[in-house]
Every structure is written in C-alpha cells, then in structure tokens.
C-alpha cells in the first residue's frame, strides 16, 4: 500500500466520487506536498489530509474520461437537430449542453454533471443511439 503525492487528486476523488478538481475543490502545494486549498461543496465533507494520504493510490484505476470534442464528433446531423430542439425548449438541457461545449478538459464519466448530461442525451437521442456513441468512445456509462 502506497500513497503517491502526484496522485493527490485521484485520492481525493476516490474518497469523494464524482467531484471535479477546479470546480468542487482546488489543490495547491504548500511546500511539503499537495493539500486541498479550496473546498466548494458544502454538501460534501472535505476529507482530511490524513484520510487522503491513507489512500493506496497505487491501487486506484484512472477514471474513464471523454474529451468534449470526441463526444461532439459522434453526433450526426439528425442528432444535432434533436439536440437543438431539446435545448431550445429546456433551460436545464441548455445549461448542460453549453457547459459541455465550453469544456476543454477531459470529462470524467463518473462525474455528476457528466452523468446528468449523458442522461439528458439518452432522453433526447434514445438509449440505442447513446449506446452506439458510448461504444465508439470506448466508455462504460
């Protein structure tokens, strides 16, 4: 069992699944190693430094991720027509869509916002189509 400081974010995410760095928490190096420098989720308890350093980061599997541009490349003209109709009639779908379009970092498939967006796309495009997309992206959602 070993904790690797370079895997600090992965350790935090293993303790608090679904949270995203730079959105839900910030990490900085205080000179002695990485620490949580900002915690933005009042509904989720911040793990202690001792809890984080007790994580066996060697045993952690990297979460699956999708680049936003790779997901966008899967959409057909028919898909986009359905998506445009859905975002025009739903502010919630619109917010999810524009957040995804603006994102440049990999989207972790276990993240709550990604899962909400995926669920919305399943409702818009249907399960069979989103299964095809998941297969093309080689992710399990």
From TrEMBL:
Superkingdom classification of source: Bacteria
Listed Gene3D superfamilies: XkdW-like
Domain Bacteriophage SP-beta YorD, first and last residues per copy: 10-63
InterPro entries listed in its UniProt record: Phage_SP-beta_YorD (IPR019094), XkdW-like_sf (IPR035950)
Name by which UniProt lists this protein: Bacteriophage SP-beta YorD domain-containing protein
